[in-house]
């Protein structure tokens, strides 16, 4: 379970980085303390159970996804279907955000929840195709086997479209940076608009957790896993994960939020055809 603990630390690091890039490195920690001491806000006719399930299941899904992430050649849970498990836990996040938006009985929160369903559906397809492309290149759904298959050349080099689509879709799945529509300011915070106190803190922890786990999975998928000179495998995995995580966190505040209709058009008209073509090319090469 050490791998899960490491990813938890990386989630905290992501929160710190988001504040550092904004010029306020300690702001996330002050906000965490404030939320822990803030009383929960309850809206009229809200469903507290659904709201709590939505908030809690988001970090739970991130933690479950972390179980199959290898650091070096070790993972908390060794499974031959790690790619499928990781993707399934990401889909759980759809229900988490939607429940959090639905349960509070607020128009803005509900809009945010439905936005995430639309965004998740659009970007899940290129995300899934990117995962399948890496698995196809290694003839396996095991993240450890995929990492080992990159001994000569990283998949990010000869599958650049899949790698780029993976990173973009990760931002959408974590509703981060240019894809913050589900929690956008134009809908008063969207799915998070009525979450307060510990509920909001747990929800935010899940969001950072998703981002950290997705960054960690990109390493065995496209960056050769723990392969590298001098350093042990687990340390190389950690270094690469931190680099990808820093890139993902940097996009917030540096890349403007894309208009919702344009974000959907980009997914359906550009990313999906591009990833299908990339998968087709990889299939020809490996077969």
TrEMBL record:
Presence of the UniProt keyword ATP-binding in the record: no
Please indicate which superkingdom the organism of origin belongs to: Bacteria
> What are the alphabetically sorted keywords of the record?
Membrane, NAD, Transmembrane, Transmembrane helix
Membrane topology, as annotated, equals:
Multi-pass membrane protein
User: In the UniProt record, does the keyword NAD occur?
Assistant: yes
Q: Which residues cross the membrane?
A: 91-111, 153-176, 201-222, 234-251, 263-286
Where in or outside the cell it occurs: the entry states: Cell membrane; Membrane
Read off the InterPro entries from this record: NADH_UbQ_OxRdtase_su1/FPO
| Family that this chain belongs to | Belongs to the complex I subunit 1 family.
> Under which name does UniProt file this protein?
Complex I subunit 1 family protein
